[in-house]
Amino acid sequence: MYPTVGIHNAPGILKGQVMDLKAIWLDNRGRLAAVLSLSALLLAAMAGGTRSAQAATAPVIASLGCPATAQQHQAITCTPAITGTVTRYSWDAGNDTGHRATFTTTFTRPGTHTVRLEACNGRDCARLSATVNVTATPRPRITSLGCPATTPEDQPVTCKPAITGNVTTYRWRAEGDNPGPSNGATFTTTFLAPGFRTVRLEACNGSVCDDAQAVIRVTRATSTLPAPVINSLGCLGNARVEVPLVCTADVTGTVTALNWSTAEGLPPTGTGPTFSTVFSQVGMATVTLQACNGTSCSRQSMPIAITVGDD
User: Which of 179, 197, 72, 203 has its CA nearest to residue 133?
Assistant: First the structure.
């Protein structure tokens, strides 16, 4: 015989109240076998069906798409391969976190680092991790600055360094040079007076740098060409603050280059027969002109009194 099932409702149920039905199971001899709450059975069945439906749409992470290796201080990007719907991303790289579909981070220390991703569709989540082997950023090595040992004054000198390794930034400096500091791979400057001058270079690969220096002996220039004669700089002896001072040189003889300079004005340098600059502060300033015929040059300076401009 099959077990007998009876439906029982608790007594005293008022109208409008939810009834919790009981299923009474009797064995084949009529004895009580079990009493089950139908509402509990129904909730359990619904929960099981919901979890199954969600599990069917849970995302699957095939890979994180991170590079296997990277250099120290180098930015890396992970682009995961995921199937299914994703409503939330949670990335963790130890020193960095993220919540976008892709993840970009930088490791500051060499070694093996772990990147973790949790991808969720509602409450159903998938997790995967990957390792990135980070190597130390190689330091560039400067073997030579490539500067000449000697050079005449007022003549351009170029340094072409010999460097091993990758270089991302250059920083050149030199004593008494014109122009001043530079960030190029090579360095060209002019020393305006005889003597010993030091050229320095810092070469960096990211934040890792090497530096070196070289000493150049600057000799006095000799030339058989006659130097130009500067008769006048053509500047007024005074100027007003924030009002351009214009100088027009009077030079006789063969002229191949005219170079102006002033430490107090903007711009501080210029070329050609006319020079215009602006002073921002009251006081005394100096304007200098160098006129050259090849390597033969003459130089003349004059003081300028800077006063307050008229309203």
Answer: 72
